[in-house]
Design goal:
The chain is of the alpha+beta class. It is built from eleven helices and 20 strands.
Length: 399
């Protein structure tokens, strides 16, 4: 029998009382805090909103609305029902709710752990916008075991949470180290000297644009596949298992993507992320188009390069630096195709390209296997944690 079981047997053998949240917490909402307000009132106190990244923090201001131990939850949007524990000086926006304990009979962090299990089940998705409003939260019932039981459970789950975070950081560090090792070898393999010929990209091919003249309605019931911005941005080789369509009339003069084409994102919020590349390395049998926020590059002579070599070449660090320098802007950066045409690339013999592809494909496969292995281990630990958490937080209800 563990300590929690001993305490339950000693202090509440007949079960525990369940209470509505509005009986043990004062419930309120945050206030409107605009981006303009954040920029004009910057300081050291965090402001939390509906995001889950960075614990929900969207900025810092010079003042705070709350000081102490609270629970907050996201009321609207995709993250509705996400609960957070706060013990600091902070503010929240109007898409967050606030719970402040009004009794000494509940340990706020115990309530946080209980609500992290049950709160999402109360979210409604009416009109397509998930919501969890204060009137619904008020009616949620949670168990209130004696304080020693609550405190012991918090101690155990805090330890579990810390161990889980340490494991996640350790696995992510291992994966990051392998990625850096992979990038090092990739960059070494793609660094050439005087032994190969170099040329400006504009001399060996032409650029072409993505879809033109399309309205929102054209993407409702489409008849042709197209490559999205994120498909190009996220993949060195175009993902062809596409389930996104656009309406294309037979008489339309739209550019099609062909085998061996290199696709680029045309703009981004930073110059470093402009011109991210993806290569169509698979031969396709049906028309494929490109979204209007990207552009393509097609070789005059497709025998010059292996498509699988190009997918690595255009993600090489030195080439990425050249591409970044072709972008200009202030809040949004756009690629200049005129400057892009001056980007210099190596042209190694096909046999050399094939050898490099073989090596880098092996590295890529090993990296993917390692990532899958580490993610599986992390997922197994998370499920183990969730199992013990739910077991610790299951109580027999007192009659």
């Amino acid at each position: 029998m563990n300590k929690v079981e001993e305490l339950i047997q000693q202090l509440c053998p007949e079960g525990v009382e369940y209470k509505r949240l509005d009986e043990i917490f004062t419930i309120s909402r945050g206030r409107v805090i605009s981006k303009e307000y954040l920029s004009q009132n910057s300081g050291k106190y965090p402001v939390y909103s509906s995001q889950t990244a960075n614990n929900g923090q969207i900025g810092k201001i010079a003042t705070y609305d709350y000081n102490g131990e609270y629970l907050t939850w996201t009321t609207d949007g995709a993250n509705a029902g996400t609960i957070f524990y706060r013990n600091e000086q902070f503010s929240i926006t109007n898409v967050c709710g606030l719970l402040k304990a009004n009794t000494i009979n509940v340990v706020p962090k115990f309530a946080y752990y209980v609500l992290s299990v049950v709160m999402k089940s109360y979210v409604s998705s009416g009109m397509g916008n998930p919501k969890l409003m204060s009137n619904v939260v008020a009616k949620i019932q949670i168990p209130i075991p004696p304080l020693p039981v609550q405190q012991e459970i918090v101690t155990i789950l805090d330890t579990f949470t810390q161990l889980e975070a340490e494991l996640e950081a350790e696995l992510e560090a291992e994966l990051e180290a392998r990625k850096k090792q992979y990038e090092y070898y990739r960059n070494e393999l793609l660094t050439f000297g005087d032994e190969v010929e170099f040329t400006e990209i504009g001399k060996i091919g032409d650029f072409y644009g993505g879809l033109t003249g399309k309205s929102k309605d054209d993407f409702q019931d489409g008849n042709a596949k197209f490559v999205t911005y994120m498909n190009v941005f996220s993949n060195i080789a175009v993902k062809t298992d596409i389930d996104i369509f656009v309406k294309i009339d037979e008489k339309e003069n739209q550019n099609r993507v062909e085998y061996g084409d290199v696709l680029f994102t045309g703009s981004s919020e930073t110059p470093d992320e402009c011109g991210m590349s993806s290569v169509l390395t698979e031969k396709i049998t049906e028309p494929l188009y490109l979204n209007s926020f990207c552009f393509g590059f097609r070789l005059h002579d497709k025998e010059l390069f292996l498509p699988n070599f190009l997918k690595y070449l255009f993600r090489d660090n030195s080439l990425r630096k050249q591409i970044g320098q072709t972008a200009s802007g202030v809040t949004r950066f756009n690629i200049s195709k005129k400057r892009f045409a001056k980007v210099i690339i190596p042209m190694p013999p096909i046999a050399v390209q094939q050898e490099i592809v073989t090596i880098l494909d092996t590295f890529t496969e090993l990296e993917a296997e390692l990532e899958a292995e580490l993610e599986a281990e992390l997922e197994a630990r998370k499920k183990q944690y969730e199992y013990y958490r739910e077991k610790l937080l299951s109580f027999e209800k007192a009659e």
